[in-house]
Amino acid sequence: MNTHDLSLLGWTDSLAAELPAGTVPARVARVDRGAAEVISADGHHHVKYGSRVRRASSDDPVALPCVGDWVALKELPEGRHELEAVLPRRTAFVRGGVSRTSRGGLSGDGQGQVLAANVDLVFVAEPSMHATDFADLGRIERLVALAWESGGTPVVLITKSDLFERGLDDLLADVAAAAPGVAVHAVSSVLGEGVALVRDYLAGSRTAVVLGPSGAGKSTLVNALAGDGVMETQLVRAGDGRGRHTTVHRELIPLPGGGLIIDTPGIRRVGLYEMTDGVDLVFADIEALAGACRFGDCGHDGEPGCAVQAAVESGELAERRLESWFKLQREAAWMAGRTDARLRKEQQNRWKIIHKEMRRSGRNRP
Ligand SMILES: Nc1nc2c(ncn2[C@@H]2O[C@H](COP(=O)(O)OP(=O)(O)OP(=O)(O)O)[C@@H](O)[C@H]2O)c(=O)[nH]1
Ligand SMILES: [Zn+2]
């Protein structure tokens, strides 16, 4: 069994302080109905969920382990392990569910789902050219809002920068205006430009995800960062007893130069997240202008004395940006309306109790 230096997987002293006594730390590389693939100091393990995790998650799927989670393993006889607890998450990509009380053909069972946890950096990949169109600023705004919402730090990557011979600087300036306070970089995985810079963000064993539309060059970038070995073939016993090689897509990818990338189908198909604070952050310029509106609750939609509308008229604020803000505000409100606030609160409280309980039982254990 190969050994892993846990700090290379992102293990920190503050996490160590949360580890219940008598358990071993591990990071979730992948989950699979009732069990997880984890990496601990002594290698990979396939672990089943212990009764505490099963109980907590039957009430609330948010308590289910997910890729990126740090977990506590309990050693069982014969070298087996059980997943005893999920350590507190620093950040989380949550897909909001539909309210338990909602009716009328909406899918979902009213509960949120955590798609990835403990993600430090969110690379928002948007191609400089998409078919015959330039980078889509509205999509960048949406993904940056999702990134802020997760608790991670967004970084915008304008990919396929080699497709631009002239005018790239103007595009980057437009993108920077659409994502205030967020670093924007041009990347060409084909030419290898900007790839080292992306790698630098991951120094100190940080964990990142790459969001972006299909064809943005996400896989190409991850391959450029990881080199070979992203796809790992594994010997699987087929039904007839003979070995068979299959390609296993690892969802937590440790990079050779340090740092980790989380790449899951769920993260790739981002769409319906709750975003409220995230939208406010990505439109910080509009929020700042709004301070000067005559009415405190100004909707910037024709009210008298609206400083935001005035900024659009003077050309200080792009009209496209205000429209994009309206759109994301509506969407955020719609999502919030679909999720039962009471249920959400309850989930948060339950999390607090679980962690408290976990710590207490950890201390009491011999
Ligand atoms: N010109 C150019 N093409 C690129 C670059 N990076 C990727 N491509 C090409 O763009 C296409 C899509 O790249 P992928 O890496 O598969 O894109 P993706 O974002 O992973 O797409 P999905 O898997 O559908 O989400 C491929 O044909 C790549 O060869 C680049 O830097 N420059
Ligand atoms: Zn206003």
From TrEMBL:
Tell me the ranges covered by the EngC GTPase domain, including all copies.
Answer: 117-268
**Binding positions for Zn(2+) per the UniProt entry:** 293, 298, 300, 306
Give the principal location in a single coarse category.
cytoplasm
Domain (CP-type G) spans: 107-270
Q: List cofactor names only.
A: Zn(2+)
Describe, as the record does, how this protein assembles with itself and its partners. Monomer. Associates with 30S ribosomal subunit, binds 16S rRNA.
The record, for NCBIfam families, names: ribosome small subunit-dependent GTPase A (TIGR00157)
This protein is called: Small ribosomal subunit biogenesis GTPase RsgA
Gene coding for it: rsgA_3
